[in-house]
């Protein structure tokens, strides 16, 4: 529950602090004093959109801070899912900078608005006139029924299966689209692939062929220069090898005189051996070179083919051509295996659809099971609230799978005898809407572990005995959860376990909205004013005392 609220620099509020009790908290005050402003601030804690225009002082940041007591409420698992430290009490803060930048914190840890909404939606429920508009939507009606049926786990299980089905369906449709496109390009891709496969490409072939062609085109010069090199090394009396052999022979007699002489001889001997190997290799290479014009022509033809293919595909190497060949093989293979791949993908989609449908049917049965009881309880409360001829019927149909299941609900309502129940927007007045919403919130009260519920003028359009019963219902709800009610009716205000008064302070140059908790004697005066006006009579004061005496 909300144990403390701080609002700073928001709208008409310079700074406001509120510490509601655990039961029924009443908020009253003159119109425009700032009661709804407090709800706007609480809406920021629920993750609503921030607007820099709401800053009281445009040069300072706005701070909304709520402290929540967490005993007895099962929300720790959400903290674990979001990897947040669970602390009791829990401190939730929203800040709006003058620049418009908004930040959110849970126990001083920065969080996204999505995470903020996920957690605070389990801590507070604000009922406003917007809820009455929402009540006409199928999605909101499903939420109400799911809460009453307590089928959250079934819904989560179904939505997991539905997401799997949608993911497989999207993959199948994408595969089908790709296959359709590949079919159109199949002939062209097949021709190009056949051309590349026929070329029998090798990664380093081009470089080796260019090197070989260069040698063959200069074969005569190469052979001549290799023969000359061979002659210098070995074919004359003054050849390099002959001179080195003579040098070794010259040093041999003195090699034993000194290690240095022996080293000279060994080094020259090593050079001699290496050059002999070089000489043999040169001779072998010279013998292998042929003046082969046909081979030159064959290599040129092969290189021309490679250059043509590279130019055609706008690449510069065989390696890139091989990559294109692999891509074409994949595209052609997809088309060739199209029927098999699509059939396998369709089978997966159908299986996932079947699983999701069965899960949706389980969820649907759980929803349908509670509809008669829900209708009966709500109508019973409406009778107590002065609507003896009220009728609520929930029509049910099933349709295609959606994220919420297969159910299509429609709340049909009639407040008057003999009038066929119709859609809420067509038949319900403001006061009827308020009583219907209060009845729905009341029957949901023991179905969800919601710490705090806030009613924003749910007493619209009611008075007298009905107002007394509304106050009684709120008091009963407040036995199991914290209720904060903004009201204009003394019948409801008198039921509160604590009472806060909102007023405008015009003592300075700028109007400020303030709030204070009323003491017992102040409550008598405030409720008397709600009964008899700004200057209440003795009768009004006695009535206030009587109301408070009953409720305290």
From TrEMBL:
Coiled-coil residues: 158-239
Keywords, comma-separated and alphabetical: ATP-binding, Coiled coil, DNA damage, DNA repair, Nucleotide-binding
InterPro entries according to UniProt: DNA_recomb/repair_RecN, P-loop_NTPase, RecF/RecN/SMC_N
Record bears the keyword DNA damage: yes
A matching Pfam family: SMC_N
SUPFAM superfamilies xrefs: P-loop containing nucleoside triphosphate hydrolases
UniProt domain RecF/RecN/SMC N-terminal: residue ranges: 2-504
Keyword DNA repair: yes
Sequence similarity: Belongs to the RecN family.
Role: May be involved in recombinational repair of damaged DNA.
Name of the protein: DNA repair protein RecN
Organism: Emticicia soli
